[in-house]
Design brief:
mainly alpha; 11 helices; 2 strands; 2% strand
Length: 326
Protein backbone atom coordinates (compact mmCIF):
# COMPACT_ATOMS: atom_id res chain seq x y z
CA UNK A 1 0.00 0.00 0.00
CA UNK A 2 1.82 3.09 -1.30
CA UNK A 3 0.72 6.32 0.37
CA UNK A 4 2.30 9.47 -1.03
CA UNK A 5 2.85 12.73 0.81
CA UNK A 6 -0.10 14.37 -0.91
CA UNK A 7 -2.63 11.87 0.42
CA UNK A 8 -1.13 12.16 3.91
CA UNK A 9 -1.36 15.95 3.72
CA UNK A 10 -4.96 15.94 2.43
CA UNK A 11 -6.00 13.45 5.11
CA UNK A 12 -4.41 15.45 7.92
CA UNK A 13 -5.90 18.73 6.67
CA UNK A 14 -9.38 17.16 6.41
CA UNK A 15 -9.19 15.65 9.90
CA UNK A 16 -7.92 18.91 11.40
CA UNK A 17 -10.66 20.87 9.62
CA UNK A 18 -13.43 18.62 10.95
CA UNK A 19 -11.94 18.62 14.44
CA UNK A 20 -11.57 22.42 14.36
CA UNK A 21 -15.22 22.85 13.34
CA UNK A 22 -16.29 20.50 16.12
CA UNK A 23 -14.08 22.37 18.60
CA UNK A 24 -15.40 25.77 17.50
CA UNK A 25 -19.02 24.68 17.90
CA UNK A 26 -18.30 23.37 21.39
CA UNK A 27 -16.33 26.44 22.54
CA UNK A 28 -18.49 29.11 20.92
CA UNK A 29 -21.45 28.31 23.12
CA UNK A 30 -20.80 25.89 26.01
CA UNK A 31 -23.93 23.83 26.64
CA UNK A 32 -25.19 20.49 27.84
CA UNK A 33 -25.31 18.17 24.83
CA UNK A 34 -28.80 16.91 23.97
CA UNK A 35 -29.52 13.37 22.81
CA UNK A 36 -30.49 14.67 19.38
CA UNK A 37 -27.22 16.55 18.95
CA UNK A 38 -25.18 13.59 20.18
CA UNK A 39 -27.06 11.22 17.87
CA UNK A 40 -26.51 13.41 14.80
CA UNK A 41 -22.79 13.88 15.44
CA UNK A 42 -22.29 10.20 16.21
CA UNK A 43 -24.08 9.27 12.98
CA UNK A 44 -21.89 11.78 11.12
CA UNK A 45 -18.63 10.29 12.39
CA UNK A 46 -19.78 6.72 11.77
CA UNK A 47 -20.89 7.65 8.22
CA UNK A 48 -17.55 9.42 7.66
CA UNK A 49 -15.63 6.31 8.73
CA UNK A 50 -17.75 4.10 6.45
CA UNK A 51 -17.24 6.51 3.54
CA UNK A 52 -13.50 6.57 4.17
CA UNK A 53 -13.43 2.78 4.08
CA UNK A 54 -15.20 2.86 0.72
CA UNK A 55 -12.57 5.31 -0.54
CA UNK A 56 -9.83 2.92 0.58
CA UNK A 57 -11.60 0.07 -1.24
CA UNK A 58 -11.86 2.09 -4.45
CA UNK A 59 -8.25 3.31 -4.38
CA UNK A 60 -6.34 0.40 -2.86
CA UNK A 61 -8.65 -2.62 -2.84
CA UNK A 62 -11.10 -4.41 -0.59
CA UNK A 63 -8.38 -6.10 1.49
CA UNK A 64 -7.13 -2.76 2.83
CA UNK A 65 -10.68 -1.51 3.33
CA UNK A 66 -11.37 -4.60 5.42
CA UNK A 67 -8.25 -3.90 7.47
CA UNK A 68 -9.41 -0.33 8.07
CA UNK A 69 -12.91 -1.41 9.13
CA UNK A 70 -11.54 -4.11 11.45
CA UNK A 71 -9.10 -1.65 13.00
CA UNK A 72 -11.71 1.10 13.34
CA UNK A 73 -14.26 -1.22 14.95
CA UNK A 74 -11.66 -2.52 17.38
CA UNK A 75 -10.48 0.97 18.33
CA UNK A 76 -14.07 2.21 18.60
CA UNK A 77 -15.09 -0.66 20.86
CA UNK A 78 -12.02 -0.17 23.05
CA UNK A 79 -12.87 3.54 23.18
CA UNK A 80 -16.35 2.69 24.50
CA UNK A 81 -14.62 0.91 27.38
CA UNK A 82 -12.59 4.10 27.93
CA UNK A 83 -15.83 5.98 28.46
CA UNK A 84 -16.33 4.20 31.78
CA UNK A 85 -13.16 5.89 33.05
CA UNK A 86 -14.15 9.24 31.51
CA UNK A 87 -17.46 9.10 33.41
CA UNK A 88 -15.56 8.45 36.64
CA UNK A 89 -13.13 11.31 35.95
CA UNK A 90 -15.95 13.75 35.19
CA UNK A 91 -17.68 12.76 38.41
CA UNK A 92 -14.47 12.78 40.45
CA UNK A 93 -13.62 16.35 39.43
CA UNK A 94 -17.27 17.51 39.39
CA UNK A 95 -17.01 18.91 35.86
CA UNK A 96 -20.08 21.06 35.01
CA UNK A 97 -22.16 19.35 32.31
CA UNK A 98 -21.94 22.36 29.97
CA UNK A 99 -18.12 22.12 30.06
CA UNK A 100 -17.78 18.38 29.61
CA UNK A 101 -17.63 18.37 25.83
CA UNK A 102 -14.87 20.99 25.88
CA UNK A 103 -12.85 18.82 28.27
CA UNK A 104 -13.36 15.76 26.08
CA UNK A 105 -12.34 17.62 22.93
CA UNK A 106 -9.06 18.82 24.38
CA UNK A 107 -8.37 15.43 25.95
CA UNK A 108 -9.03 13.69 22.63
CA UNK A 109 -6.76 16.14 20.79
CA UNK A 110 -3.96 15.34 23.25
CA UNK A 111 -4.63 11.63 22.82
CA UNK A 112 -4.45 11.89 19.01
CA UNK A 113 -1.06 13.59 19.18
CA UNK A 114 0.32 11.07 21.67
CA UNK A 115 -1.07 8.09 19.76
CA UNK A 116 0.53 9.39 16.56
CA UNK A 117 3.86 9.13 18.34
CA UNK A 118 3.08 5.56 19.42
CA UNK A 119 2.13 4.67 15.85
CA UNK A 120 5.40 6.03 14.46
CA UNK A 121 7.39 4.07 17.04
CA UNK A 122 5.33 0.92 16.45
CA UNK A 123 5.70 1.12 12.67
CA UNK A 124 9.46 1.60 13.00
CA UNK A 125 9.73 -1.32 15.40
CA UNK A 126 7.83 -3.84 13.26
CA UNK A 127 9.82 -2.78 10.19
CA UNK A 128 13.19 -3.41 11.84
CA UNK A 129 12.47 -6.19 14.32
CA UNK A 130 10.28 -9.12 13.29
CA UNK A 131 10.22 -10.51 16.84
CA UNK A 132 8.15 -7.49 17.97
CA UNK A 133 5.03 -9.32 16.78
CA UNK A 134 5.59 -12.03 19.39
CA UNK A 135 5.81 -9.37 22.10
CA UNK A 136 2.67 -7.61 20.82
CA UNK A 137 0.77 -10.90 20.65
CA UNK A 138 1.82 -12.05 24.11
CA UNK A 139 1.02 -8.63 25.58
CA UNK A 140 -2.49 -8.65 24.06
CA UNK A 141 -3.20 -12.14 25.40
CA UNK A 142 -1.97 -11.07 28.85
CA UNK A 143 -4.12 -7.92 28.68
CA UNK A 144 -7.15 -9.97 27.61
CA UNK A 145 -6.63 -12.30 30.58
CA UNK A 146 -6.45 -9.39 33.04
CA UNK A 147 -9.42 -7.66 31.44
CA UNK A 148 -11.55 -10.79 31.79
CA UNK A 149 -10.53 -11.27 35.44
CA UNK A 150 -10.57 -7.71 36.71
CA UNK A 151 -13.17 -5.19 35.60
CA UNK A 152 -11.19 -2.23 36.89
CA UNK A 153 -12.67 0.26 34.45
CA UNK A 154 -16.05 -0.05 36.15
CA UNK A 155 -14.81 -0.02 39.71
CA UNK A 156 -16.03 3.50 40.38
CA UNK A 157 -12.62 4.58 41.61
CA UNK A 158 -10.05 6.79 39.92
CA UNK A 159 -6.44 6.94 41.01
CA UNK A 160 -4.57 10.08 40.05
CA UNK A 161 -1.40 9.25 38.15
CA UNK A 162 1.99 10.88 38.68
CA UNK A 163 1.49 13.45 35.92
CA UNK A 164 -1.68 14.74 37.60
CA UNK A 165 0.10 14.80 40.94
CA UNK A 166 2.95 16.78 39.38
CA UNK A 167 0.51 19.32 37.89
CA UNK A 168 -1.17 19.79 41.26
CA UNK A 169 2.17 20.18 43.05
CA UNK A 170 3.80 22.58 40.59
CA UNK A 171 0.93 24.72 39.34
CA UNK A 172 -1.19 26.82 41.73
CA UNK A 173 -4.74 25.53 41.29
CA UNK A 174 -8.12 26.60 42.59
CA UNK A 175 -11.01 24.26 43.32
CA UNK A 176 -13.53 26.45 41.47
CA UNK A 177 -14.32 26.31 37.75
CA UNK A 178 -14.55 29.46 35.65
CA UNK A 179 -16.42 28.32 32.55
CA UNK A 180 -13.96 26.73 30.11
CA UNK A 181 -11.08 28.92 31.26
CA UNK A 182 -7.84 27.28 32.26
CA UNK A 183 -6.86 30.22 34.45
CA UNK A 184 -8.82 32.56 36.69
CA UNK A 185 -8.23 35.31 39.25
CA UNK A 186 -8.90 34.61 42.94
CA UNK A 187 -8.17 37.35 45.50
CA UNK A 188 -5.88 39.08 43.04
CA UNK A 189 -3.90 35.90 42.23
CA UNK A 190 -3.91 34.19 38.86
CA UNK A 191 -4.56 30.49 39.41
CA UNK A 192 -5.20 27.50 37.21
CA UNK A 193 -8.71 26.05 37.36
CA UNK A 194 -9.53 22.33 37.79
CA UNK A 195 -10.20 22.33 34.03
CA UNK A 196 -6.48 21.92 33.38
CA UNK A 197 -6.20 18.97 35.77
CA UNK A 198 -9.21 17.26 34.18
CA UNK A 199 -7.74 17.65 30.69
CA UNK A 200 -4.46 16.14 31.86
CA UNK A 201 -6.41 13.28 33.47
CA UNK A 202 -8.35 12.55 30.27
CA UNK A 203 -5.28 12.78 28.02
CA UNK A 204 -2.93 10.68 30.17
CA UNK A 205 -5.60 8.07 30.87
CA UNK A 206 -6.23 7.63 27.15
CA UNK A 207 -2.48 7.33 26.65
CA UNK A 208 -2.49 4.32 28.99
CA UNK A 209 -5.32 2.78 26.96
CA UNK A 210 -3.21 3.27 23.84
CA UNK A 211 -0.75 0.71 25.23
CA UNK A 212 -3.44 -1.89 24.50
CA UNK A 213 -5.11 -0.46 21.42
CA UNK A 214 -2.03 0.32 19.29
CA UNK A 215 -0.62 -3.25 19.43
CA UNK A 216 -4.16 -4.52 18.78
CA UNK A 217 -4.60 -2.57 15.57
CA UNK A 218 -1.10 -3.50 14.36
CA UNK A 219 -2.37 -7.06 14.67
CA UNK A 220 -5.01 -6.24 12.05
CA UNK A 221 -3.01 -4.08 9.64
CA UNK A 222 0.65 -3.24 9.23
CA UNK A 223 -0.09 -0.05 7.27
CA UNK A 224 0.71 3.09 9.36
CA UNK A 225 -1.79 5.12 7.32
CA UNK A 226 -4.65 2.76 8.19
CA UNK A 227 -3.53 2.53 11.82
CA UNK A 228 -3.56 6.31 12.17
CA UNK A 229 -6.85 6.95 10.36
CA UNK A 230 -8.64 4.15 12.23
CA UNK A 231 -7.50 5.70 15.51
CA UNK A 232 -8.46 9.19 14.35
CA UNK A 233 -12.00 8.22 13.32
CA UNK A 234 -12.52 6.24 16.54
CA UNK A 235 -11.30 9.04 18.81
CA UNK A 236 -13.00 11.90 16.97
CA UNK A 237 -16.38 10.23 17.39
CA UNK A 238 -15.76 9.46 21.04
CA UNK A 239 -16.95 12.79 22.48
CA UNK A 240 -20.49 12.60 21.16
CA UNK A 241 -20.65 8.88 21.89
CA UNK A 242 -19.97 9.76 25.54
CA UNK A 243 -23.17 11.82 25.68
CA UNK A 244 -25.18 9.44 23.50
CA UNK A 245 -24.56 6.34 25.58
CA UNK A 246 -24.97 8.08 28.94
CA UNK A 247 -26.60 5.68 31.38
CA UNK A 248 -26.36 2.85 28.84
CA UNK A 249 -22.74 2.33 29.86
CA UNK A 250 -23.80 0.78 33.15
CA UNK A 251 -25.89 -1.75 31.23
CA UNK A 252 -22.97 -3.06 29.14
CA UNK A 253 -22.02 -5.48 31.90
CA UNK A 254 -20.22 -7.94 29.62
CA UNK A 255 -18.29 -5.37 27.59
CA UNK A 256 -14.95 -6.12 29.23
CA UNK A 257 -15.40 -9.84 28.57
CA UNK A 258 -16.20 -9.16 24.93
CA UNK A 259 -13.17 -6.88 24.57
CA UNK A 260 -11.02 -9.53 26.25
CA UNK A 261 -12.13 -12.04 23.60
CA UNK A 262 -11.31 -9.56 20.81
CA UNK A 263 -7.87 -8.73 22.23
CA UNK A 264 -7.12 -12.39 22.86
CA UNK A 265 -8.12 -13.29 19.30
CA UNK A 266 -5.91 -10.56 17.84
CA UNK A 267 -3.01 -11.64 20.08
CA UNK A 268 -3.26 -15.24 18.85
CA UNK A 269 -3.60 -13.98 15.26
CA UNK A 270 -0.40 -11.93 15.64
CA UNK A 271 1.61 -14.85 16.96
CA UNK A 272 0.34 -17.24 14.26
CA UNK A 273 1.17 -14.76 11.51
CA UNK A 274 4.60 -14.20 13.01
CA UNK A 275 5.25 -17.96 13.09
CA UNK A 276 4.09 -18.27 9.48
CA UNK A 277 6.20 -15.47 8.05
CA UNK A 278 9.16 -14.70 10.35
CA UNK A 279 12.54 -16.34 10.33
CA UNK A 280 14.03 -16.40 13.82
CA UNK A 281 16.97 -18.62 14.84
CA UNK A 282 15.27 -19.92 17.99
CA UNK A 283 12.07 -21.03 16.20
CA UNK A 284 11.97 -24.04 13.85
CA UNK A 285 15.69 -23.77 13.10
CA UNK A 286 15.35 -20.27 11.71
CA UNK A 287 12.64 -21.20 9.22
CA UNK A 288 8.96 -20.11 9.14
CA UNK A 289 6.52 -22.61 10.63
CA UNK A 290 4.50 -23.94 7.66
CA UNK A 291 1.56 -25.22 9.70
CA UNK A 292 0.87 -21.85 11.32
CA UNK A 293 -2.27 -20.52 9.58
CA UNK A 294 -2.76 -16.99 8.34
CA UNK A 295 -6.11 -15.58 9.43
CA UNK A 296 -7.60 -13.47 6.59
CA UNK A 297 -8.98 -10.01 7.30
CA UNK A 298 -12.52 -11.15 6.44
CA UNK A 299 -12.39 -13.68 9.28
CA UNK A 300 -10.94 -11.08 11.65
CA UNK A 301 -13.67 -8.61 10.78
CA UNK A 302 -16.36 -11.28 11.18
CA UNK A 303 -15.05 -12.36 14.59
CA UNK A 304 -14.85 -8.76 15.85
CA UNK A 305 -18.36 -7.86 14.68
CA UNK A 306 -19.86 -11.10 16.02
CA UNK A 307 -18.24 -10.76 19.44
CA UNK A 308 -19.31 -7.12 19.82
CA UNK A 309 -22.91 -7.85 18.76
CA UNK A 310 -23.19 -10.87 21.08
CA UNK A 311 -21.66 -8.86 23.93
CA UNK A 312 -24.12 -5.98 23.50
CA UNK A 313 -27.18 -8.24 23.17
CA UNK A 314 -26.17 -10.42 26.13
CA UNK A 315 -25.46 -7.36 28.29
CA UNK A 316 -28.81 -5.72 27.57
CA UNK A 317 -30.67 -9.00 28.06
CA UNK A 318 -28.93 -9.57 31.39
CA UNK A 319 -29.67 -6.10 32.76
CA UNK A 320 -33.28 -6.39 31.62
CA UNK A 321 -33.70 -9.73 33.37
CA UNK A 322 -32.12 -8.41 36.59
CA UNK A 323 -34.06 -5.17 36.61
CA UNK A 324 -31.12 -3.03 35.55
CA UNK A 325 -28.68 -4.09 38.27
CA UNK A 326 -25.30 -5.66 37.64
Amino acid sequence: MQIDGTLWAVTLVALVAVFTLDFFLAVRKPHAVSMREASLWTAFYVAAAIAFGLFIAAEFGGQYAGQFYAGWLTEYSLSVDNLFVFVIIMSRFRVPRQSQQFVLLVGIALALVMRAGFIVLGAAAITRYSWVFYIFGAFLIYTAYNLARHDEEKSGEFRENRVIGWVRAVLPTTEQYDGNNLRTVVDGRRLFTPMLVVMVAIGTTDLLFALDSIPAIFGLTKEPYLVFTANAFALMGLRQLYFLLGGLLDRLVFLSIGLAVVLGFIGVKLILEALHTNSLPFINGGEPVPWAPEIPVTVSLGVIVTVLVVTAVASLAHTRSTGGTN
